[in-house]
Every structure is written in structure tokens, then in C-alpha cells.
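Internal QA ticket QA-208
Title: Verify multi-chain structure generation after dependency bump
Assignee: T.L.

Test input:
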Amino acid sequence: MTGSLLKEKLERGEFAVTAEIGPPKSASGEDILARAKMIKGCADAYNITDNQTATVRLSSLAGSVFIMKEGMEPILQMTCRDRNRIALQSDVLGANALGIRNILCLSGDHQCFGNQPDTKNVYDVDSTQEIMIFKRMRDEGTLWSGDRLKVAPDLYLGAVSNPFGDPREMHVMRLRNKVSAGAQFIQTQSVFDLDAFESWVSEVRRDVSLKDVKILAGMLPLRTLKAARYMAESVPGTCVPPEIVRRMAAAPDEEKEGQRIASEILDGIRDMKGVSGVHIMPVNWYSAVRPLLERAGLLTGHSLR
Amino acid sequence: MIVGEQKPPREVFDLISIYGGGNVLILGCDSCVSVSLAGGKEEVKEMISALQRICESEGMGWTFTGATVRRQCEKRFHGEVADLIAESDVVVSMGCGVGAQVLAENNRMKNVVPAVNTSNMGAQVKHGVFKEKCVGCGDCTIHLTAGICTLARCAKSLQNGPCGGSIDGKCEVDPDTECAWYQIYEALRQKGQTELMTRVMPPKDWSKSHSRGARTVKKEGNR
Ligand code: SF4
Ligand code: SF4
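Actual output:
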């Protein structure tokens, strides 16, 4: 069985690209395949989100299996909002048996933001503990309880971090916890302010316990002024410099300006010391991904399974 | 203390109607729910006037009696109102969910209806404002988090640091609530102990929590 190609690439020290695909509210695989095809060949691996913003959609596990049919390598997102440790471990065994290697562990958006606000969340474990559990399954070949597994899963474990969280020291400590629990790669909250991001990266890299973890800088191409304003004002934990909103407001063609801004950010990320790759969240602007990567010279050399 | 909130009188009226009304005893409690302004003497009085107004407009000739007991969750205090209970057709409990249950257990043949929604174990943070502090997990670990319980006070019960969403020290889920992790960080920073936040907490043993149903606590050597 093949291991994670994303892991291989990152460990070779090559700049990696990941991109996010959000499964639709649909019982058909055709819809997610249509989205996947729009960015096929653009990235080394593709995050399949897990009921993002706590809105029910096709499951991340099914979505991952669908894109694998296209030869695309998935990063299965698994929140601990909806699963206790029984479900987490069982799902990871199933995912692994289906050929999924990359797992992104997250606490998940709170249910109050989604379309089932009356539900009860689980949070038996948090994302750090989720990583600990998966690491034990892989490295010790046992469940968290110690029960031996017939076949241990082969996993490449990721987590998320917010470089713009305030106070920074607190968020860096949280990152340290995730890495000491076993996170091997980190995808960050979207970067709009390169200077702020660079200063975070250098602080993280100064920490000996964080010197080897692979950091993929998150980015979200802004399509409209409305999106820029929304990111700046309403998305918790993002930091959008006023200059970006001003540029979008002044632009005769918002999409073009959005592409230009995204390119500048991507160039900055690509050339930044201590950054291992980029993680693109196209939201609903999948057609922007390919030209963006092309302009940055990052479109070639992605592995297909 | 146990924090509760009064049900709207209209809802209480409807609950009493299920059992046909008649002689209605409104029984409050002088302990927690009195402090949390949900079921003490004052609230009993207010509830009675509100119910009387509804009865008038609905043409119901029910009669109301009000009383409170020292602690509704303890049977030994029910003696004071035994006669009132005996004379009533419906007993409306304005105690917490524990008080109401003990009342029902000791008066099996009576119809007990709740007039208080029991919310949480919390404390008064300013006049008339109560915040949850503990979810009774059965294994307290707040010595590691500056005396702040994240199981109760973080909207995701995170045990190893904050989520990415807190804004200006407030929780992303409710701008009127402090982010528990932000508070912990601040408290530890003032004591020069922020390193405590990098102690990784393994998955919690929830077997001591509510997840196994009603828990029993036995005190050895006590009767
Ligand atoms: S750790 Fe458990 S016992 Fe302690 S305050 Fe929190 S919920 Fe209550
Ligand atoms: S903002 Fe703070 S309190 Fe709210 S869910 Fe996140 S970590 Fe918990």
C-alpha cells in the first residue's frame, strides 16, 4: 500500500501545495467530483472538509474516497465536535483501510454557527488528544485503551494553527501542545498580512520543539469586496489589513484585483523561510486556483496517485 | 450554587392545566434558586399574581397558596409544609430540578409540576447575572488551569488550549462570555506560570462523569 505522497514531498524539503474541497449538501458523488475536477492536478493533496461551519454536508470520508477515484490524494479532516473516541478510532481505521493516509485533526466550528444549532456537541476529546490517540494507534499498534490492532494504520497527522491569534504566546503554546502530541504538519488560518505571518513563522521556528514541523500557510483568494469585508470583520481570528479592503474597494474589476492580491501573497509565502508549503482554500472560487498557481510557478510536479 | 430560571407563567399555567388545576400550591426554596432569583419567596409571590391574572382572563377559579422551604432537596424540611401539600391538588415546584424530584418522590400521589428550568452550577458574577462554573465531571483538575474550569467555561470544553476563534478575549460563540483559555492565560501570566499551559492533558476519563447515568456518592463512616 502506498504511503502519504504529501509526507514524502514535505520530507524531501520540497514546497508542497494543498487545496481544500468542501463537499456539497448532496447525496450524489457527482457534485464533489465536479468540484474536485476543477482543481485536479493543482495540488499534492486535497483537504476534504468535515461538515465545515457545522453545516451538514456529504461526509469527509466519502468525499475523500470519491476524489481518490480521480487519482487525487485526500487529507481527511476529522473534527472532534461530532465524534467520541470510539467513532474517531473506528473512522480512522476505516479510512486507512480505504487508502487514506493524511488526517487533519481539528476541534471543529461550533454547532451554533451551522445549520443544526440545536444539536449537542461531543468534545469527548479535543484536537490535541485526537492526535495523541491516532499517534498511539500508528506507533504502538494499539487503540487508546491499549487493545492491540491486527494491522496498525499508516497515518500522516496534521493540525491547524492560527498565526494571528491574540495573544500570540498563548496560541504558540497551543501549537506546541499539538506538535508534542504528534502533529507532523500544520495548516494555518488564511494569511493576508505577510509581515505578521513572517514574524509568527520566525517565532515558531525559534522554538526548538517546533523546528521540524511542516508549516503550510493558509490562503484564501478574495473574489469580491464583500468577501474581503466579511473576512476582515466577521471571521473570528483572521487578520485582513485595511489596505487589502481598500484595494478591493477601489478596483474596477474585483476578481482581477483579488487574483492580483492572491498572487502577491502566494509569492510571499513561496519565498518565506521556514514555510513548507501553501494550503489554498478556494471556498467557491475553484477556477481561481490553477491560474494562481501557474503565475507562482507552482503548477508543475504534483504527484498523482 | 444551582442556577435556575423561572418558566414563563403562561407555560406554568399550561402545565397545571394538564392536571386540572384546583388547589394549587406554589412551593419555592430558600437556598440556591432563591439566590439565583428563580424560586425564592419573592418569585413565589410574583408567580402567584401572574397565575391569578391568567386564571381571571381564562375564567378559571383555581386557588393559590404560596410557601417556601429551607432546602427543597432535603426531605426533612418538607414537614413544615406537609399540610399544605396534603390539601393541594397540584404542587408547583419552584425549587431546582433536584428539589422538585425529591418533592415528587416523597409525594408519590401528588401531581408535581416544575416552574423553574434548572440551568447550571454557577455563581453570581454581577447583580442578577449568573455564570456557569462547573459541569460536575467527577474529577477536578482546575489546579492546572488557574482555577478556571474549561469543561464548563469553554464552549468546546477544550483541554489543551484555545481554539483559533477568540476575539479580544471573548468566546467566539458568545461575545458576552470571556474565552476561558484567554482568562487562564492571563491569570497564569500574572503568576509567571504560563508554562503550565504546555502540559498536555491526555484524553479525560469520563467514567466519573454523568456518562454512566446517575452517580452515587457514598461517604464512608457517615450515616
Ligand atoms: S474540572 Fe470537573 S469538577 Fe472541576 S470544576 Fe470542572 S467540571 Fe467541575
Ligand atoms: S473562544 Fe475560547 S472559550 Fe470559546 S470555544 Fe474557543 S477556546 Fe473555548
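Spot checks passed. Residues B 134-137, 140-142, 149, 151-152 surround iron/sulfur cluster (ligand 1) (CB under 6 Å).
Status: verified.
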